[in-house]
Amino acid sequence: MEVTLASWVSLSLVLVSIILRWAWSVLDWVWLNPKKLERCLREQGLQGNSYKFLYGDVEENSILLKHAKSKPMNLSTCHDIAPRLIPFLDQTVKTYGKNSFVWSGPVPTVTIMNPEDVKDVFTKLDDFLKPVSNPLFKLLATGVTNYEGEKWAKHRRIINPTFHVEKLKQMSPAFHKSCDEMIKEWESLASKEGSSCLLDV
C-alpha cells in the first residue's frame, strides 16, 4: 500500500511539475516576453502601441485595412497609396515616427525608415537577425534575401561587383536611352488623349 501511495505521489508531482512548466512557458510566450521586448524597444528610443494580450495589433490592423478598402480611391488626384495598402503601418509611422514598432501577435515588428539607421541594419549583418520565414517561402524563394551568416557574406561578395559605381556608370547610356524611349512613348499617348492620361506602369 505504501509503495503504491508513494508512486502515486511521485507521479502526481511529476505531472504537476510538467503542467506548471508548460503553463510558465505559455505565460512567458503570451505576456512576459512581449512585455520585456516592449520595454527593451522603448529603452532604445522606439515608439509604438502597448502590447495587447495575445493578439497585439492584429485586430486594429484588420479593422483599418477593411475601412481603407471600403472607400474608393481617386487615382487621378492622389498617388499616395500607402494609406490604402498598408493603413495600419502608415498610421503608426505618422503617430510614432519613422522608427517605430507594431505587434504581430506576441511578436514585435520594427519599422526603420531613417536612412542612417537603415544603413546600420544593412552593414551590421550579425547584429540584426532576419525573421524566421515561412517554410514554403524558403522553398520557393531561395537566394541572398534568405541567407544568414557566412553564406550571406559569400553571396553578397559575389554579387557586389555587379552594382559597383564604375560598372553602373558604364550602364548609364543604356539607362538614359531606355528612359528617353519610355518618356517619348508616354508623351505620344498623352498627346493622343489630350493633356494627360492614366497609364498602368
TrEMBL record:
Bilayer-spanning residue ranges: 6-32
Keyword NADP (UniProt): no
Entry GO terms, CC: membrane
A Pfam family of this chain: p450
Localization per Swiss-Prot or TrEMBL: Membrane
Domain of life: Eukaryota
Broad class of where this protein is predominantly found: membrane
UniProt name for this protein: Putative secologanin synthase
Organism name: Rosa chinensis (China rose)
